[in-house]
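ugh ok fine here u go
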Amino acid sequence: MLRFLTAGESHGQGLVMTMDGVPAGLHLDIDALNHQLKRRQGGYGRGRRMQIESDRAEIWSGVRHGRTTGAPIALLIRNRDWVNWQQTMYVEPTMPEGATGARRADVTRPRPGHADYAGALKYGHDDIRDVLERASARETAARVAAGSLARQLLAQFDIHLASHVSAIGDVVVPSERLVTFAEAAALPDDGPLRCTNEALQTQMMAAIDAAKEAGDTLGGAFEIIATGLPPGLGSYVQWDRKLDGRLAQALLCIHAIKAVGIGIGPEVAVSPGSRVHDEILPPDAKASVVRPTNNAGGLEGGVTNGEDVRVTGFMKPIATLMTPLRSVDLHTLAEAPAAIERSDVCAVPAAAVVGEAMVAFVLADAFVEKFGGDSVDEIRSHYAATAEQIRRRFEAPRPA
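structure:
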């Protein structure tokens, strides 16, 4: 139903995002979109690049007078750092007259854990910069823009998302500590790590400082919570329609994410069924049925069940180390230290914002799939009819 593509390099002129399938009639808040871009740039442990860029999106098509038209939406996010890279990243066959910045040497020493080595072999590049410029996490700014469009569509139906950091290195929020949506949503956007436990957050910051001092990097984990979702998004009838699979793919395609958990995640493998599965109790005044727990993370059989959707992403440490690991120069084939590119020590809070964007996009796609229509008003009509159907089903018990 919805789809988006991105283009652009880390130190090129900018990033481009095109998104198709957004229904007509959505009032687009460009300030809210730019606020999400700003959130991605924050967090303790970020590098100098975040002091250079101040991302803002320029809408080029698909929006007129503040409302979507149903046509594809295209937007541009300019790279302010382009002025320092024109002599290295020019598009023309020869360097244009007046190009600014420094002319940098070819990158020939791949970084372990990065796309450098595999990408150079796949595409036959001699200069690894042809790989790392596109494989850079700078591209995620365009994803956050796409996710902002999706979350604005979801907000029309009172569906909202929030996230929190649950681990940095070996400093971990206890697994039995369930963070509510309200707690995650209340975290300040300018907080250092957006962790709900201030004491642990202080320890996390100290761990990042120690890694920086050692020329090392740290990964961690973050949880995304979506609330207000109706039951019935996704499907169990085919493997590629299962919503949990679609969410997992959406998170795993984010740079450095190596594992995904839904609900209590890996704990399901070491706990008995009596402590894993969420019981179903008779309806109360607020719900169709009552679920005392939500270990499943709002998804059963690949379908939303009306509870909060909870998805956790696990991020490896960033591949650029200031004290580089051993590598090989692909030109000389001699052992050499891995290349060093300007980078972060830890980007878990930023990854959480990207994760929110990707989850929002998948949920919006599933929402439009379920309540399809070419305009927001048409989708709203279908949504209301389905909600009424479910309400009637639980209005009164049927004869035994």
